[in-house]
Design goal:
heterodimer; A: 37 residues; mainly alpha; rod-shaped; B: mainly alpha; two-stranded parallel sheet
Chain lengths: 37, 214
Amino acid sequence: LNIHLHRLAANWRVIVAVASLVSFALAGTAGDPVGYG
Amino acid sequence: VLILVGVPLALAVGLLAGGRLDRLGAQRVAWWWVGLVAFAAQLVAVYAAGTPDTLDMALIVGSHVALAAVALANRRLPGAPVVAAGLVLNLAVMLANGGLMPVAPDTLARAGRFEPWKVGAGTPGSRVASSKDVVMPTDQTRLEFLADRYWNGLPGRLGFIFSVGDVLLTAGVFTFVVSTLTTAPATRARKDTPHVSSPRFASGAGLVVPAIWD
């Protein structure tokens, strides 16, 4: 159970990390945040 | 958008180079949540109808300042100085031209942006629809070489307009992702955060325990 909890936490942190990274980069690049620019 | 290609590509390169995805979750990044807040603020500024221009401008400029501060606070992380440089360049040209990113009518035309739903009024001084950009002729743009002046040349939705700052930011994020995925946490801990002892990264079962995104 301990190992499974660690894996779950690790996966969750990876998802949050990628989401934060993409948000950061989209907000940082000028133009349309989610479109063509 | 440049970055929507850059991040998946960096993840793919990092994994193909033998990297591990869990290292991204274990990487310590100061003020990591600011990116999410800045992105949310910009969605309001760009897409919410009826918000005053002054509020939009404050949200856009303020979010860029916050992002640059985060990049500088994390300057010891791989790629972070390049990210910071990209953000500062974008911020510089935006501030020099009233707070929004200038894009020339010629650039919009070259990229095939003619429809009102894509470019708004399209007249000098008007905001580009659903965008942080403002239409501004080249000869009236300060620091024009830093503006949204490049087009990747691809048709339709594949085509996008970008700036020098965008390229630097994407390159920095690419470096950060690939380096983080391919560098063992213990090595990073010694190199980047000497005050953190390596046992915090390892559990008794030998698994890598995600460190704190603080």
